[in-house]
Structure prediction request, 877 residues.
Amino acid sequence: MNKHVSPKMNRRAFVIGTAAVGAGLAIGLDLPFGGPAVVRAADGSPEIGAWVVVRPDDTVVIRIARSEMGQGSLTGLAQLVAEELECDWSKVTTEYPTPGQSVARKRVWGDFSTGGSRGIRSSQDYVRKGGATARVMLIEAAANEWKVPASECTVARGVITHKASGRSTTYGKVAEAAAKLTPPADVKLKDPKDWTIIGKGLLRLDTADKTTGAMTYGIDVKLPGMLNAAIKDCPVFGGKLKSYDEAKVAGMKGVKKVVKVGDTAVAVVADTWWHAKTALEALPIVWDEGDNAKVSSESIAKWLAEGLDNDQPAYVGNKNGDAKAAIAGAAKKVEAVYSYPYQNHATMEPMNATALYTADKCEVWCGTQNGEAAFAAVLEASGLPAEKCDVHKVMLGGGFGRRGQTDYVRQAVMIAKQMPGTPVKLLWSREEDMAHGRYHPITQCKMTGAFDANNNLVALHYRLSGQSILFSLRPEALQNGMDPAAFQGVAQSGEAAFGYSVPNLLVEHAMRNPHVPPGFWRGVNVNHNAIYMECFMDELAHAAGQDPLEFRRKLMGNHPKHLAVLNAVAEKIGWSTPAPQGVYRGIAQVMGYGSYVAGAAEISVTDGSKIKVHRIVASTDPGYVVNPAQVERQIAGSFVYGLSALFYGGCTVKDGKIEQTNFDTYNSMRINEMPKVESVMVPSGGFWGGVGEPTIGVAAPAVLNAYFAATGKRIRSVPLRDQNITFA
Amino acid sequence: MANLTINGKSLTLDVEADTPLLWAIRENAGLTGTKYGCGIAQCGACTVHIDGVATRSCGVSVAEAEGKKITTIEGLASGGVLHKVQQAWIAKDVPQCGYCQSGMIMAVAALLNDKPKPTDADIDEAITNICRCGTFQQVREAIHTIAAA
Prediction:
């Protein structure tokens, strides 16, 4: 990096080939005599630290390492930088550094992964410092020019002023000088009370192109000479490709090549994707399905049910007192078994990636939630070293956790590697996407609650049986075999802590890992844990003859933040006053991703089977709210995703394969089914919680508890589709 | 070969008659604003106007579309001015990931053409597009804003 080369040569040499999609940035370096290196963006404008580029026209380009998939954190992250930078928001634009550039610069942009509702909360500190660092350097450059102390200069909206001498200048004018300064060793961040950009519901920075068709998603990438591929992977997970009869499709229109992709898949490469897909469907394929072909939803359910038995081994995730003894000696006990199915992410844009492989370079263009993981996949699949690979990120047509995995990236490279020099876009059909998800894990849960003679809850035994995501995807994160994430929402402490105090508590997980690959699905383990715990809490309240809200409140004295959001929801929905005639209420709370959330629903039920959701109230305390308009959208969106899963979701297994194939068998809510979500934001400050996921946890239990209030019938499994319950 | 009239332009495309219009639009005409979501006319991401009627282009063949006036999201603006639905979508910050929004906007534009002041019931009936991000609340609000203007 500290090589002296002429800026012109350098800029040209470092330009990354992104002309086709117009995204990404180029890096140039120049080392002026006697000063630190100036790093330049594609257009030659200087970097003022890694996070900020200032153009001569005062445009501020903010680097965003995390991925935008609709959740709005591209805009939120820009707000964080702009707040400290004191720039003019109307002149802010953004760009993605590539993972290859980041690796070449010792990961100057930190973590690229965008999952676990981490986008804002786990980078807020260093991106704000990036903005503050640039501000200090820009002011210092102006002060140097004027030969006045920097402390006498002020800045507002990108205009630096020295009041005593009446001089002013702009960021664009001093950027070149600022770029040559040594960055300050330490910067002080603003007190949150002084924020003027953070906390505002500013419009997103990426909307206009989404309304004209101009936004480039992975599926839209075009490269000169590009071919298109359609793929089929063995429909039984763990099975293999045995053979295929290429001759049967070789003469079909547009077909260029049929290629084996690893041990498990075959792809047809053609001039257009439609030709590739048409030929793929005509291609005779023989699979070696293996033993997993014997697995069904029934066999999985039976295996999981065995794990609910106390005699089976289990990992303990949360414990106090002696729950089993207290239950044995209790005056009254309540027991219930719940279950939650596999779910497909079903992003609107099916998985895809475009790869160009040559003997000394491999580049990929794709939507990914984890640029660095995609980069690692490119290295592995291409066999080329890091300096010869890169990933160009484009807008994601939905992520929800699915695009944190890199299976589709690896496939695209494996195909392109068999056609050196020709860019190939691999696009999955919706059917392939449904068949090869990374599914929400499947679990069952047996809960036992025990009361003393005065109807006080004295013990709770929460026994999960089912799949671990970390076992499959991040085994290095297991703790002596235990998956700590399995206890999201019912954990002893931390970012997903249990919100109730029960004198005798045992929370445990009997791990059962069926062959269907699990993944991080928006909300992840909070989804089922919140349904199990919050519906069972409702059962306990009714068993004790108490109001579900009051019953919870009594157990939440030591959990003031959990209680505060629950109270906020109760007040907003009017819990203390009767619901309208024929309308029934349900309530739920949980903690996840560092945020406290609660939800309440008002529903009516016709014939016991047709549900109309009239009202939803949801509250969140994420510590700080960076953009309330986007948080509101994330809350409402999480309810659409969570209620779609409750009513219509659920993937079943037959002969080792997923049975659902498209939106006709895996439906999703429409506008007529979704009421307005009333958001109540109660940020209490002092911590940074996530936003994209936590509220999904309370969506289903709030509605299920309302259903019990309406019908007296307790639903303990998902989806409602399988119980002939639908939207009215 | 097929002759298609897309966004006011007559195009001769090297495409088979039984190809779904969606793929002729995306791959042969090169207009990628119209999105593939399901291929079975369920999700609405591929919605275009055929003779003014909101239609799922994955379920219509090239042969069926010949001789008709096809409008895609790229042809919705007129004379460099965005359509009122596009303007409202920007002002109300409707899209999240945005992938379904081309189809959503086309469906809404057709609705407003038929019913300039739609009720909630009209919206519920006409707008059946899937949005996995869950923008329905903003979609509904933006439609009412346009109708009130």
